[in-house]
Design goal:
This protein is α+β, with helices and mostly antiparallel strands. Helices cover 34% and strands 32% of the residues. A hairpin with a 3-residue loop joins strand 1 and strand 2.
């Protein structure tokens, strides 16, 4: 597979506990339900959908349209045991075929269970091995230690603080963020060590 092929048919990823798949209108209720908790969006740059209808008609519709436009791959995180949507994870802001940003959110009931680490490892493997990306990066609010921990467990390296870097669309102000990144060569080295 290559970069273009990743956008020819939505890639479904599977892990031990999870299926990462394209979001559907039927997911709108679950998406809205977990986004209704301020703890889920407190460190994000928006507050999520305003209603189940907004989740279906605007949010999921936009994410799928942006996939067709090769702007984002946003996977729904689904538990195999329940087949319920519990979060999303995405690659976006592609710079040519070399770089992408990763982001995610997860319903609070599923925090501290290793779920996001499991999903993140599947997505970065896809980005490097299937899409041929050179660098995957993430920006994190400095007050969000849980997200920093998830990224560092996956091998991301903290690169520094970017002052007033991310615009918050609801508050209409700018957030400081920490930049972290993982390079394909470092991912390949860690994969080799794991397989030995």
């Amino acid at each position: 597979m290559g970069f273009e092929q990743a956008f020819s048919q939505f890639p479904i990823l599977e892990t031990e506990r999870l299926i990462l798949r394209q979001l559907q209108v039927a997911d709108a209720g679950e998406l809205y339900a977990y986004y209704s908790d301020p703890a889920v969006y407190q460190y994000l740059d928006w507050h999520g959908p305003n209603s189940v209808e907004d989740a279906a008609e605007r949010v999921i519709s936009n994410w799928n349209r942006w996939y067709a436009e090769q702007r984002i791959i946003r996977w729904g995180i689904v538990l195999k045991t329940t087949q319920r949507l519990i979060g999303t994870i995405f690659l976006c802001d592609f710079v040519g075929e070399s770089r992408a940003d990763v982001g995610y959110e997860l319903g609070k009931a599923h925090w501290n269970q290793g779920i996001m680490t499991e999903a993140l490892r599947a997505v970065i493997a896809f980005g490097f091995e299937a899409m041929g990306l050179h660098r995957i990066q993430a920006i994190v609010n400095p007050e969000n230690p849980a997200s920093l921990t998830v990224l560092k467990k996956a091998g991301f390296v903290e690169e520094g603080l970017l002052r007033a870097y991310e615009y918050h669309y609801i508050r209409r102000d700018f957030n400081d963020v920490i930049m972290l990144a993982l390079l394909r060569r470092d991912f390949a080295l860690s994969s080799e060590r794991t397989s030995q």
